[in-house]
Amino acid sequence: MLQIIKKFCREEDGVGVVEIILILVVLIGLVLIFKNQLRTLVNNIFAQIQKQSAGIY
């Protein structure tokens, strides 16, 4: 039983999952911090797309 617990503690299979979760937490934090700037940027991009696509029709 002790050997199984030691083996479980040495496994590193879950490390990838923890790293992905930490990266997602950082990305979500950045989105929350820069929410207004991102919204302005996306709105400007869509406005330019609409303006340029009006010339096609």
Strand and helix layout:
Elements: H1 2-10, H2 15-33, H3 35-54
Outline: rod-shaped
- What is the distance, rounded to the nearest whole angstrom, between the alpha carbons of the first and last residues? 73 Å
Question: What is the subunit organization of this protein?
Answer: single chain
Low-confidence stretches: none
Q: Tally the helices: what do you get?
A: 3
Helix and strand string, N-terminal first? HHH
Gyration radius over CA: 23 Å
- Tell me the strand percentage band: under 5%
**Helix content estimate:** over 70%
Average pLDDT, rounded to a whole number, is 86
Can you walk me through this structure?
The structure is a single chain. With about 55 residues, the chain is mainly alpha-helical. Helix content is about 85%, strand content about 0%. The protein is rod-shaped and about 75 Å long. The termini are far apart. The mean pLDDT is about 85.
